[in-house]
Write a structure and sequence with these properties.
Keywords: Antibiotic resistance, ATP-binding, Cell membrane, Membrane, Nucleotide-binding, Translocase, Transport. By secondary structure, this protein is α/β, with parallel strands linked by helices. Helices cover 34% and strands 25% of the residues. Strand 7, helix 6 and strand 8 form a beta-alpha-beta unit. The longest helix is centred in the middle third of the chain and has 16 residues.
């Protein structure tokens, strides 16, 4: 594979065991340069271990992992020079200012005193922390600390950035600030691997989603394609519960799924077949033509929450949809 086409982040058959715990069991991953990849999975699925392997913090037991074309074992120093890493907890000294934290990171990366000062000023200005740069970090809000930790990982302008649950515990406004920062970096050509528990976050930021469970990738694809594979939920609440069979016939004819009837709630609900769209005006027309009076009609598009539950358990979808894109658990 040429350097032009080689993914910025690669994992092939990576395994990692900690004692009796099999953290990674043949994980495959390929992230094109300049894109954002969302790594999703339940707690203990192997997401953080995957990031630690890629960041050269732990060595894989088997398999191959490369970052920016460099093997994480044989060329660990080259990998470290190519990456930035923001973990789940801010790696900051709270007893000094934000500006001094960044200057220290710059000196550690051998930018020199003058270069470290200049880079700290640039980053604080670019990411909206210039006014707080000379305050002690202990006075920062949680969102400000996370943002400072994120920009500290950018001191050397790395082409690849690993973000391990960067917005955990933040309020919605602070989370939006981190999202804006990630979008700006991706727009500038940085490759981002993002692990997150917030599915809305992955949906908003990621070009590609990889769902991991028990240390292996069980699904991969753009968010819209993964959601399309689940199907929409069509729900009709009737005026007369005696018309439930007629409503069920109309909805299943359009949606292709199996109807669930709730007599007490006067509701028929159908999950559409994957890739099959039901348009609300057409549904209303068909119900009217069948003489069914509806009190409420709704078509709910699937979310990444639905995808996640379908793949990792407690799903509202058919079992055959639990493995997508030909991936095996």
């Amino acid at each position: 594979m040429s350097d032009v086409t080689r993914p910025a982040i690669e994992m092939a058959g990576v395994e990692k065991r900690f004692g009796a715990t099999e953290a990674l069991r043949g994980l495959d991953l390929a992230v094109p340069a300049g894109t954002v990849c969302g790594l999703l999975g339940p707690n203990g699925a192997g997401k953080t271990t995957a990031v630690r392997v890629l960041a050269t913090l732990v060595a894989p037991d088997r398999g191959v992992a490369r970052v920016a074309g460099h093997d994480v074992v044989r060329a660990a120093e080259e990998v470290r020079r190519a990456i930035g890493l923001a973990g789940q907890y801010a790696a900051l000294d709270e007893g000094i200012t934000g500006r001094d934290n960044l200057r220290i990171f710059g000196r550690l990366h051998r930018l020199g005193a003058r270069g470290a000062r200049r880079r700290a000023d640039e980053l604080l200005e670019r990411f909206g922390l210039a006014d707080a740069g000379d305050r002690l970090v202990r006075t920062y809000s949680g969102g400000m600390r996370r943002r400072l930790d994120l920009i500290a990982s950018l001191v050397t302008s790395p082409p690849v950035l690993f973000l391990d649950e960067p917005t955990t515990g933040l309020d919605p406004r602070s989370r939006q600030g981190i999202w804006d920062t990630v979008k700006e970096l991706a727009d500038g050509g940085t490759t981002v691997l993002l692990t997150t528990q917030y599915l809305e976050e992955a949906d908003r930021l990621a070009d590609e989603i990889v769902v991991v469970d028990h240390g292996a990738a069980i699904a991969t694809g753009p968010p819209d394609r993964l959601k399309a594979a689940i199907g929409s939920e069509v729900s009709v609440t009737l005026v007369d519960p005696g018309r439930l069979p007629a409503a069920s016939a109309v909805v299943t004819a359009l949606a292709g799924g199996e109807a669930q009837l709730d007599v007490a709630a006067r509701t028929v609900t159908v999950l559409t077949e994957p890739g099959r769209a039901v348009l609300l005006p057409a549904l209303v027309r068909e119900l009217d033509a069948a003489g069914v009076a509806a009190e409420d009609v709704a078509v709910r598009a699937p979310s990444l929450d639905d995808v996640f539950l379908a793949l990792t358990g407690e799903a509202r979808v058919k079992p055959e949809l639990t493995v997508l894109e030909g991936e095996a658990a």
